[in-house]
Design goal:
Blueprint: E1 5-14, H1 24-29, H2 35-45, E2 54-62, E3 67-71, H3 76-84, H4 101-111, H5 119-134
Antiparallel strand pairs: 1-2, 2-3
C-alpha cells in the first residue's frame, strides 16, 4: 500500500550546513518531521556542493511522519554572481547592466538540467528577463 502524502514543504538551506536552528528546525518540527534525520540526510546529500550555497529543497512528508527530499540546483542568480565574480546584483536593475552573453549562456547550460520545457525556444527570453531583474 502506498504512503499517503500529508503535504510538501519548500526550504532554502545552505549546502552542508543544515542544523536544527531556525528556519529549518521550526518549519520541520511543526509538521512532525524528525529534524535531525533531515539535517543528517541533507548534509550527506549536499556534501559535494560548494559549502554555504543556498539549495532549494522540496520535502514531501507522509502521514506516518516519514519524508523524502528533492534537492534542486541553486538559483540562477547564484550562477550569475559566481560567473561575474560579484557579491550582489545591481542597485538599479534595468539601468546598471552587468551581464554579458557569454556568462548568461553558461548559466543557461547549467540550469538546463532542471528546466522541463523545450529549452531552446524559451532560453533567450528567460535569459534576458532574469538578467534584467538581476541587473
Amino acid at each position: 500500500m502506498a504512503k499517503e502524502i500529508e503535504g510538501t514543504l519548500k526550504l532554502q538551506v545552505p549546502a552542508g550546513q543544515a542544523n536544527p536552528s531556525p528556519p529549518v528546525g521550526p518549519a520541520l518540527g511543526q509538521r512532525g518531521i524528525n529534524i535531525m534525520d533531515f539535517c543528517k540526510m541533507f548534509n550527506d546529500k549536499s556534501k559535494n556542493e560548494q559549502p554555504g550555497v543556498m539549495l532549494p529543497v522540496v520535502v514531501t512528508y507522509f502521514t506516518d511522519k516519514s519524508f523524502t527530499m528533492d534537492i534542486k540546483l541553486p538559483p540562477a542568480s547564484f550562477f550569475l554572481k559566481e560567473a561575474l565574480k560579484i557579491k550582489k546584483g545591481s542597485k538599479e536593475p534595468g539601468r546598471d547592466i552587468i551581464k554579458t552573453r557569454l556568462h548568461m549562456h553558461r548559466v543557461i547550460l547549467v540550469k538546463r538540467l532542471q528546466v522541463r520545457v523545450d529549452i531552446f525556444d524559451v532560453l533567450p527570453r528567460w535569459r534576458d528577463k532574469h538578467a534584467e531583474r538581476f541587473g
